[in-house]
Specification:
About 10% of the residues lie in helices and about 55% in strands. By secondary structure, the protein is mainly β. It has a six-stranded antiparallel barrel. The protein is globular and about 50 Å long.
C-alpha cells in the first residue's frame, strides 16, 4: 500500500508570435508512491558518476511513462535510474534538480 504522493509533469509546448517555442511543465499528474532508503552501494555508485542520489520512490509500473522528472514534497527531482521489480512496481532513483523547488 502506498502512503505518499508524487507528481509527474504534464508538458505543454507553446509558440509565441516570433516562432519561439516555450516549454511549460505543470506538475499535476498525481501518483501514489512509497519512499524507501537508498542502499549505501547505490549512493556511492551514483556519487562516482557525479550524481547526488537522494531518494528511491516506488510506484506501480502502469503509472510510469518514462518521465525524467518528478515533484515530491515540493521539490523537483531528476530521475537518474529506474528499476522494474517482479511485482509490477518501478523503483525511481532521484537526484535534486539544480534550482528545483
Amino acid at each position: 500500500m502506498f502512503n505518499e504522493v508524487l507528481f509527474f509533469p504534464i508538458v505543454t509546448i507553446t509558440e509565441d508570435e516570433l516562432g519561439q517555442k516555450h516549454t511549460i511543465e505543470d506538475y499535476s499528474r498525481m501518483i501514489f508512491c512509497n519512499e524507501k532508503s537508498i542502499a549505501q552501494s547505490e549512493f556511492f555508485a551514483a556519487g562516482q558518476a557525479g550524481i547526488k542520489a537522494v531518494k528511491k520512490l516506488v510506484i506501480h509500473s502502469h503509472d510510469y511513462n518514462d518521465e525524467v522528472k518528478l515533484k515530491y514534497k515540493d521539490k523537483v527531482y531528476n530521475i537518474y535510474r529506474t528499476y522494474t521489480t517482479e511485482d509490477e512496481k518501478v523503483e525511481l532513483y532521484v537526484e535534486v534538480k539544480a534550482g528545483g523547488k
